[in-house]
Every structure is written in C-alpha cells, then in structure tokens.
Design goal:
- By secondary structure, the protein is mainly α.
- The chain folds into two domains: 87 residues, no CATH class; 68 residues, Winged helix-like DNA-binding domain superfamily/Winged helix DNA-binding domain (Arc Repressor Mutant, subunit A, Orthogonal Bundle).
- It is 80% helix and 0% strand.
- It contains seven helices and no strands.
- The N and C termini lie far apart (64 Å).
Length: 170
C-alpha cells in the first residue's frame, strides 16, 4: 500500500486544505488547527477498525462536523457570558433586602406552581420534578419511569406548559 493510501498519508496530503476548510467554518485559524487535529484522532481510530471506502470524504465530513460543533459551542459560550454579565449587574442588587411586595409576589407564584404540580398526573409530576429540581436527564427519567425517551420529554414539556398556564405566562 502506498504512503498516500494509508490514513496518515491521506491526512498529511490533505492537511492544509482541511485547515483551510475548517477555518472557513469557525473563522479562526488556530481553532481550525485544533479541529483538524481532533479530526485526525477520530479518523485514525475509525480507519483502524474498518475499511473506509471514501476515506477522503469521511475525513472532510469529520472536520465539517467538528467545526460546526465548535462554532455552535462558541456561540453558546458568548451567549452565556453575555447573560452572565446581565446577571452580574443584577447581582449587585442581590445583597439588597427584598421588599415586602416582591416577597408576597414570589410566595404567590410559588403557591401557584405547587398547586399546578398537585394537579398533574403522578407520572408527569415525577418527570417534571426529576428534570427541574433533580437535574435528571431525560434518559434517566425514562429509565426510572420505564417509559420511552420521547414520552419523558413530552411529560416534562406538558408539565412546564401547565405551570406556565397556571401562572398566566405566555
């Protein structure tokens, strides 16, 4: 087998164009280098386990998927940081003593939510509480309740919608 037909040979031959491709997606050459390096690790592992018919196309697909994932992650991080700044600004007032009016409003909302949860079927309430209060993943809820994953998702969504309606939220 010639050097160009091995996974490493294929990677070395296409490395520069892979970096350019990843860079066009993520918009940063250094991040594109990281994407291509991660792609190599995945590609090499996959090529050791099975024969790849279109190895070049597969390598480009790995780079594309990793670059898009990186771009989405960066967008989420920017959003969280921006939201965090708003929270930090609001946190400056967190030390202030709440007004009696705000305490009354929150107590009323809390009572409405508790009443709304009491109205739900048991399975729906359990799914909601596990997800919102226990930070359980949907697959954990599905396993605990012995239901499908889509049904677990629907139960949580139904409970959220019910609580929103009882609070008068859109």
């Amino acid at each position: 087998m010639s050097q160009d037909r091995t996974p490493l040979g294929l990677f070395v031959t296409h490395r520069r164009s892979l970096v350019n491709y990843a860079s066009s997606i993520v918009g940063d050459r250094a991040q594109a280098e990281d994407v291509v390096q991660e792609a190599w690790l995945r590609f090499n592992g996959a090529s050791q386990r099975r024969l790849l018919e279109d190895a070049t196309g597969y390598l480009y697909q790995i780079v594309r998927n990793l670059a898009l994932d990186g771009r989405r992650r960066a967008t989420r991080e920017r959003q969280v940081i921006a939201d965090g700044d708003v929270e930090a600004a609001a946190g400056a007032r967190a030390d202030a003593v709440p007004t009696p009016e705000s305490v009354a409003v929150y107590k009323d909302e809390y009572a409405l939510v508790m009443d709304a949860l009491a109205e739900l079927p048991e399975r729906t309430r359990i799914a909601f509480e596990m997800h919102r209060f226990g930070d359980a993943k949907l697959r954990e809820i599905a396993a605990f309740l012995n239901i499908s994953l889509p049904l677990a998702h629907r139960l949580v969504a139904d409970a959220v919608q019910h609580c929103k309606e009882r609070l008068g939220w859109p």
